[in-house]
Amino acid sequence: MNVIVASLNPAKIEAARQALALLFPDQDIELNGLAVPSGVAAQPMSDAETLQGARNRALAARRHRPGADLWIGMEGGIDRLQAHTITFAWLQVLGPGLDNVARSASLTLPPFVASAVSQGEELGQAMDRLFNLTNCKQQGGAIGVLTRNLLDRRSVYRDTLILALAPLLSPAPYAQPATQTSP
Hints:
alpha/beta; six-stranded mixed sheet
């Protein structure tokens, strides 16, 4: 199976590698990263913008490497929910007969981090500056820092990718036409 992750970020590539190894343990998987633009802000600031970035990345990867079996776009974003600023990711997967998405778990950001992000700083840069780190977005990310590495960016993206690939694991239910039921 030839898979393209629409990013060169090692955390995203490793998340895909782990998910695919769990899902397809008996298959040879050739996984490659590819730098492509998201077509959205460097730090998406809404659910819709983050989803669009993930889709744009997967579509761009498919245009650049049309011979692959799967194209995966991953985009981390920020949104406001009531009084909370949260971070999360959208993952878009494309393949023959496959066009699916999944959203990761969300993490509430501490107020001082939320403030830095609201002033235009990217989350990874804000985390590095505020916690005296170097390039945390390519490691455990804000998730790792704020959960003391009980979870990290790789594990959350891995699990989200498994959700996005559910139609490959259980194709029959996804092939069923939608039916309406009466209350």
